[in-house]
Specification:
single chain, alpha/beta, 5-stranded parallel sheet, 39% helix
Length: 148
């Protein structure tokens, strides 16, 4: 059943935030499988179906939840690459980060982020925010057709 729904790609290096995000998304019983990438290089490998992801079907996730501060390649570098790649540029990208820095917010939108959500410190607020993101982007948002 999950193969008929595009994945949700979670780009997050903090194991606690990964666990909380997965728990929040599971709370709404979304049929979308969640794929976790732990750094920016892994994100791009997944999206381009390269290296460890060479055999995966070539389709865009329903949405990517992207942290800014990640090892090897940060979220802003990832976003820049995605928006400059004609096969990836339509991927909805939601920055899900702890950074409230104005420069990060401005840079994210300048690079083409679809939304910017600051991770709430409070556990229940965090869970609610992620649930709402999952429901909107995986169920309600209309996606454009994929380019050939």
């Amino acid at each position: 059943m999950t193969d008929t729904y595009p994945e949700i790609l979670l780009a997050e290096d903090d194991p606690n935030d990964v666990e909380l995000t997965l728990e929040a998304l599971a709370g709404h019983n979304l049929a979308n499988r969640v794929v976790v990438a732990h750094d920016g290089v892994e994100v791009m490998d997944y999206l381009r179906c390269e290296n460890a992801f060479a055999g995966r079907p070539q389709r865009l996730p329903a949405v990517m939840l992207l942290d800014i501060k990640m090892p090897r390649k940060d979220g802003l570098e990832v976003l820049r690459e995605i928006r400059s790649d004609s096969t990836l540029r339509r991927l909805p990208v939601v920055m899900l980060t702890s950074s409230r820095e104005e420069q990060d917010i401005v840079a994210s939108y300048d690079l083409g982020a679809n939304a910017y959500v600051v991770k709430p410190v409070d556990f229940q607020e965090f869970m609610h925010a992620v649930e709402q993101l999952g429901v909107f982007w995986a169920l309600l948002n209309e996606r454009p057709p994929e380019e050939d």
